[in-house]
Amino acid sequence: MGRTLQNTMINLGLQNACDEAVYQLGLDMEELEEIEEDAGLGNGGLGRLAACFLDSMATLGLAAYGYGIRYEYGIFNQKIRDGWQVEEADDWLRHGNPWEKARPEYMLPVHFYGRVEHSASGAKWIDTQVVLALPYDTPVPGYMNNTVNTMRLWSARAPNDFNLRDFNVGDYIQAVLDRNLAENISRVLYPNDNFFEGKELRLKQEYFVVAATLQDIIRRFKASKFGSTDSVRTVFDSFPDQVAIQLNDTHPAMAIPELMRIFVDIEKLPWDKAWDITKRTFAYTNHTVLPEALERWPVDLVEKLLPRHLQIIYEINQRHLDHIASLFPNDVDRLRRMSLIEEGDTKRINMAHLCIVGSHAVNGVAKIHSEIVKTQVFEDFAELEPEKFQNKTNGITPRRWLLLCNPGLAELIAEKIGEDYVRDLSQLTKLHKFVDDDLFIREVAKVKQENKVKFALYLEKEYKVKINPSSMFDVHVKRIHEYKRQLMNCLHIITMYNRIRRDPAKLFVPRTVIIGGKAAPGYHMAKMIIKLINAVAQVVNNDPVVGSKLKVIFLENYRVSLAEKVIPATDLSEQISTAGTEASGTGNMKFMLNGALTIGTMDGANVEMAEEAGEENLFIFGMRVEDVTELDRKGYNAQLYYDRLPELKQAVDQIKSGFFSPKDPNLFNDVVNMLFHHDR
């Protein structure tokens, strides 16, 4: 979510009044804003997309709630020490959080472990361990429309009799200390982006947010006029007309069996009725096609933690496979491919398959990604129900990503086309008639230059490097991942460096290359890439031959509040993932909205950006999805490129020989070895 203060003032139309009032108190609003901690409760694009959606839904006046976990520790703070990433705990609540309000009156129980008892009256989940979910509400104001929605985040609390109901526990002190075990559920965000780690605590977190949220939704439904009761029982027929639940990736997929459990076991609905309501309630957004990112939970773990849910998943799967078998008799391989359960050394539940079967709509997040979802990853499901698969290309909120972070540009635009564009960016096409207005073009360039000077001062303060503010600011900020190809950018930096050294007199457009982003703590290659970038920066930034022509900066602790500073100052936006790997990307849109040019591949939303702006207005390069598929088919041999391209050979040799790591010439062996032998 980032910071809340400035966004709230803007959406309430109070920013100028507050600035003035604070100024009269002898304070500086910008200094005050810098004190607020970022709420970093997600990893990358997935969490930030949810944050943008909340702003958008409030601004559109939709009755929408954002549900999640109130992590005590969010995404780690990144320190760079000696060129290496070091993680520090993000104790963001240390000084309290003025934006949240605890709601103990809505506290709800969540059950784990236990066993299932079957009787004539149905299944009972008993002998469970209970954890309480305490909601904290944060207001989400719409833009200038007198609407305030709610983000409700759950915190885990142990019940007061935790471990004390157990008459055999004589150790009272230990029992109280063990309350931490329950409360650990909301302790810390798992820091993986686009990678699945099948840990029990993570599954507990996923079920915790789902179970609390569904109880909350059903309580609200029953309290409304729609939850009409005939004698005793609630009639749920209208439920899907009143409630829509969007699954943001598969992380909340347990909501599907959980809602079935509530309907069948507790509300005593017949299975078919419950399943019909459930399917019409849920929709699923797929956010990645990388196989290592897809959630596949071991059956044994689910059986231990959520025994009733496993039974329900088996029943869903049985009915699903019976249906497939009736349509495709004797096609056992199709049944294997489409099953929710994957056989193998360990049986696993494919959560994406569960989401597809349990939802009435499935979407990808950019045109190209939605096509890949339909034709490759889930082709069997799309063949079965083509009408279920849709596209909803991602977007960003123009309030935070233009008004808030780039007031100079926002004001210039408003002078030309009015202020309505802030709610409707399609109105930016009105700027077309000013393409030949020299004064306007100069003004836009002036705003960019002011933003660059301001950011250059920030960099000099933070990094003690002298930055040339008239150099090209070439920016590559996002999570560090092999598919995002920060390593390719690094090879380009080395190549530019070698060109300057080879012919120092030759004209070279000065650049400041800025790379930033966090690596998952367990992702060795990503951490090596950070170290390499910093090692290259060491050499480049201190070479007198290069001088101010080329500077390299690794931006420490990239986060929302830092994005708000760097994006308005950017000239060139790097969006260079291998075609077919970045589902959408949203940083790409933020840079474009702030007047940067894009260098990028035909991947994710870059494709639609090129379509909108005209391909001649982006620097598009590299293989298309078809070329990647073809190269995969015939086999990729890195050696051929190394042998054929002398500049590439020189760059790789420098990494290999220790030119950038003289104290440890073998430091980057793993990186070079990956480039030659298993570079996906």
Automatic annotation (TrEMBL):
<dbReference type="InterPro" id="IPR035090">
    <property type="entry name" value="Pyridoxal_P_attach_site"/>
</dbReference>
<dbReference type="GO" id="GO:0030170">
    <property type="term" value="F:pyridoxal phosphate binding"/>
</dbReference>
<keyword id="KW-0597">Phosphoprotein</keyword>
<keyword id="KW-0808">Transferase</keyword>
<dbReference type="GO" id="GO:0005737">
    <property type="term" value="C:cytoplasm"/>
</dbReference>
<protein>
    <recommendedName>
        <fullName>Alpha-1,4 glucan phosphorylase</fullName>
        <ecNumber>2.4.1.1</ecNumber>
    </recommendedName>
</protein>
<dbReference type="InterPro" id="IPR011833">
    <property type="entry name" value="Glycg_phsphrylas"/>
</dbReference>
<keyword id="KW-0328">Glycosyltransferase</keyword>
<keyword id="KW-0119">Carbohydrate metabolism</keyword>
<comment type="function">
    <text>Allosteric enzyme that catalyzes the rate-limiting step in glycogen catabolism, the phosphorolytic cleavage of glycogen to produce glucose-1-phosphate, and plays a central role in maintaining cellular and organismal glucose homeostasis.</text>
</comment>
<comment type="subunit">
    <text>Homodimer; enzymatically active. Interacts with PPP1R3B; recruits the phosphatase PP1 which dephosphorylates and inactivates PYGL/glycogen phosphorylase.</text>
</comment>
<dbReference type="GO" id="GO:0005980">
    <property type="term" value="P:glycogen catabolic process"/>
</dbReference>
<keyword id="KW-0321">Glycogen metabolism</keyword>
<dbReference type="InterPro" id="IPR000811">
    <property type="entry name" value="Glyco_trans_35"/>
</dbReference>
<keyword id="KW-0663">Pyridoxal phosphate</keyword>
<dbReference type="Pfam" id="PF00343">
    <property type="entry name" value="Phosphorylase"/>
</dbReference>
<keyword id="KW-0021">Allosteric enzyme</keyword>
<feature type="modified residue" description="N6-(pyridoxal phosphate)lysine">
    <location>
        <position position="590"/>
    </location>
</feature>
<comment type="similarity">
    <text>Belongs to the glycogen phosphorylase family.</text>
</comment>
<dbReference type="GO" id="GO:0008184">
    <property type="term" value="F:glycogen phosphorylase activity"/>
</dbReference>
